[in-house]
Amino acid sequence: MHNLQTKDQKDMLVSRRYKAENTIIEVKGCEIGGNQVVVIAGPCAVENTEILKETAFKVRGSGAVMLRAGAFKPRTSPYSFQGLGEEGLKILHRIGEEMNMPVVTEVMDSEDIELVAKYADILQVGARNMHNFSLLRKLGQVKKPVLLKRGMIATIEEWLLAAEYILAAGNPNVILCERGIRSSEPWTRNTLDLAAAALAKQLSHLPVVVDPSHGTGVRSLVTPMAKAAIAAGIDGLMIEVHPQPDKALSDGDQSLTPKLFSQLLKELEPIARACGRSIKYS
C-alpha cells in the first residue's frame, strides 16, 4: 500500500507519486497544508447564538483561525441532541462572518450538501460517513473544501481511498482528519492514532489535521495529544471548546474551557518552532 496504487497500478490521485509537493488549500485567506499549523476550534454543536458567539470570540482571541460547530449531529442515541439544522447553519455562518473566521461543519446526507455549502466554508464528513460513497462522490462535485474524518474502524488505506472518491469526482481540496479509532481500551473514547496521521503525511500530498478531542474523549488528554500531533508534523488541529463544558449539550467531557484553550496555544508555539513550523494566529 505504500505505493498507493490501485489494482491496475495506476497512481492514486491522493498519492505523492501522483503529486510530490504538498497540496495547500486556501480558505478565505487561510492556508492549510503550508508551513503554518492551523487551529480550528469551537463547540461540538451550535446550541444557541450566545454560546457560539462567546466561544468564537474567546477562541479567536487566543489565536484560532477557523470556527467549528455542528448544526447536524449524528448521535449514537436517537434521543440525544441532534443539532439545530438550518437554523444552526445560519447562526454559525453569521458569527463566522462577524468574527472573520471561516467555518467548518458536518454534512451528513448527500441531499443536504447544497444547503450546508450555502453557509459553510469547509464541509466535514464525519467518521460514521467515511464509507458513504454516494456522499463522497457528490462532494467531489462541489467547489468547497472537504474535511474527511477517518472512520472509527477504518484502515489507513480505506481512509485514503475514501479521499480518492472525492478527488476522482473532481474536487482536489480534501483535508484528512485523524480523530481516533475504536479499540478495546475503555478509559478513552477512542485511541488517537498519531502514527496514522504521520504516515498519511508521508503517503499523501493532502493536508492532515488531528482532532485530539474526539481522539481521546478526555479533557485532560487534549493538550498532551495536541502537542504530540504538532511534533508528528501535522498541518492543523481541530479542538472542541465550550465556555461551560459541564453544561454542554454534547461532548462536554472532551471540551476545553476557553482558559485551557488559551494556555494550550501558548504551549504549542515552542513545539512548532522546534519542528521548523509556526502556529498561524488570527
What is the CATH homology-level superfamily?
Aldolase class I
Number of DSSP helical runs: 9
Shape: globular
* Nearest-integer average pLDDT: 94
Residue share in helix: 25-40%
Oligomer: single chain
> Can you tell me the CATH topology?
TIM Barrel
Query: SSE order, as H and E?
Result: EEEHEHEHEHEHEHEHHEHE
Structural class: alpha/beta
Strand content: 15-25%
CATH class descriptor name = Alpha Beta
CATH architecture: Alpha-Beta Barrel
Radius of gyration (Å): 17 Å
Main sheet makeup: 8 strands, parallel, barrel
Q: Tell me the distance between the termini.
A: 38 Å
Low-confidence runs of at least 5 consecutive residues: none
Care to describe what's here?
With 282 residues, this protein is of the alpha/beta class. The protein has one domain (34-279): TIM Barrel, CATH 3.20.20.70. Helices cover 35% and strands 15% of the residues. The protein is built from 9 helices and 11 strands. The protein has an 8-stranded parallel beta barrel, surrounded by 6 helices. A two-stranded antiparallel sheet has the order 1-2. The protein is globular and about 50 Å long.
